[in-house]
Amino acid sequence: MILHKSPNKDPKLPKSYRPINLLDVGGKVFEKVLKDLTSEALYTPLAPEQFGFLQGKCTTDAILKLHQTIENGDLKYIAALFVDISGAFDNLWWPALLVRLEEQKIPKHLYDVLKDYLSQRWVEVQTPLGTYAKPVTKGCPQASVLGPFLWNLVMDTCIQRLKPYATEVLAYADDLLVLWQSRSRLHLEEQGRVICRQLQEWCELNKLTVAPDKSALMVFPIKEPKTFRRQPTVRINGHRIPVVRETVYLGIRLDLFLHYRSHLRLQTHKAIQAVSRVTSLAKRDYSLTPEKQKILYKGIFEGIALYACGVWAQRILLKTSGSILLRAQRTALVRLFGAYTDTPLEALTLILDEPPAHLTALFRAAKYHVKRDRPDLSHELIENYSNLSKSERKEKLVEMWDAWLRESPKGTFARAIFGNVHNRKRLPWVKPNRAIIRVLSAHGPFRDHLCRRRLVDSDLCLADSERDTVEHAVFRCRAVPETLKEARMKIQARTLRDIIQDREDWNILSAALADLVQKRESESLLVRAGIQVAEADS
What we know:
Blueprint: E1 2-4, E2 17-19, H1 25-41, H2 59-71, E3 77-84, H3 94-103, H4 108-117, E4 121-127, E5 130-136, H5 147-162, E6 168-172, E7 175-182, H6 185-205, E8 216-221, E9 235-236, E10 239-240, E11 246-249, E12 252-255, H7 261-285, H8 290-305, H9 309-312, H10 319-337, H11 345-352, H12 357-371, H13 375-381, H14 390-407, H15 412-418, H16 421-425, H17 434-441, H18 447-452, H19 470-476, H20 482-490, H21 496-499, H22 503-522, H23 524-528, H24 533-537
Antiparallel strand pairs: 1-2, 3-7, 3-8, 4-5, 6-7, 9-10, 11-12
């Protein structure tokens, strides 16, 4: 299978396409057995600086290691060289791999099987002009079971070669990062030349090349936040490595001072775009239940926006970074659940029973650090987190969520109905849809709300000249659907707070609320306000 890498790539260039190796079940099982046997037979284990394709390790581990190395620097600067190896997986030289297997003292029978498995390989490409075949003598097939492990074996030699000259060397698959400390620009350049010379020699031994234009150099100030009068010069193969102030490493955008604000802006923008595409598709083809909407929210928005939160979660304790995440969460919830655009986040989180994103990030990060046996880092995020039981952690989240709601002047109507987060969690039968969100947030087709938005001149109901609030529309207004009139007769309670506490009463009322909101949005109210329903929902 051959996939087009990106719409921005030239379709006429072969490098614009990514071949994917598709193995049958038998091939996958065979490669898995080979991988397990070879890894057990290694004379020396893989370097701990390797993070890719290894059980118990992830991208967050590598990024956090980079972050900690920079924070623990004791000289004036730390240089970070982000190395891009051209077509690394496609150009892995098999003789170099076989030499590496010999160095690891792999048993002869296993070595012979691997050598035979790599021989007599052909690639066939079908075109309108016929089928073209070419023998394959190099390359580590991506999407295969054995390929990533073989690449790690060769990359291990690069790490061992660079370690004596660098403060830290990190490798995740073909993403190589070299860090070294320096006292001055001159010292930085001298050490950089040594490292680049070693890297170039390793590439020549393994028939690989570095792409200088795709590589990058960042210089992190440690003791003095000053920049150089002239940027340092580091060259590979005679080509200068560009010096940048920001770069993307393993999916996270790094800046010189590790603020991660630009990363949060980028990730939240991606998350909102993904949510918008899904909701647009859902409106055209199928309706989503509240349960499915929550699954999409957690899988799409939280999955993208909270990526690698174990690294940057501490930064959202700062007001600026936290507000970036919360603004994006409100936009995502509004679009996914169909709320009015001015619905406050405080009301949305309480009605939907979804904690604010900054608290979700803090608890995810704390859980990550505890799993990695770093309780001190988890305590910096949430006090005494590692000593709390699972139920106590849930209580802690609810406590911090309630404190966040109390500090905000917004979402007062929803808070008056539910009281607090504890009470909301005792009401599992409240499953908010578009109509329920409009009613429980008081941000819907009610003249009291529309008047505050300056969409109508008066907040009085057109049917009985009483102020058209949510309570009036639900309990007293005469111009309501028959279903709501029947629901009024069946329900004894006369406040939303009382009704919502009783499952039976709430089920009766919630069914009628959908008709109430639909009637108000489809008839005269929004038309007289001079707006369209679609505009109110956008």
